[in-house]
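This part of the workshop introduces the protein records we will be handling. As an example, a complete record with its sequence and its structure tokens follows.
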Amino acid sequence: MLEEKVVDLFKGGFIPGLAHPYMGQEAVAAGVSAALEKGDLIVSNHRGHGHSVARGVPEEAILSELMDKDAGMCLGLGGSMHSTDLDVGVVFSTAIVGGGIPLSAQPTQPLFMRE
């Protein structure tokens, strides 16, 4: 239902820039998240809304992010393609195809992780 709302908001002009819905792909995020443990980290792609929901990011924070509001996960600066919430292990979402692979393949803890 979140993705349906995203589409409606985008069509209504309430989301600046682009919005990349996750409709039809929800099983991927749900399955991956079910296999992860609390401290596990993920790097998502340009359709990261589903991963954010599955990891526990409040839907209000996701919608705020998409609508360029400072109540969003990245203060409205990341938009649809660059959401992050370190508290639930969503390290980064990137619009660059394959761009998450170098980030997720780091042999040590990434420098940007909170202590």
In short: The CA atoms of residues 96 and 112 lie 19 Å apart. Residues 2-11 form the longest helix (10 residues). Residues 2-104 form one domain.
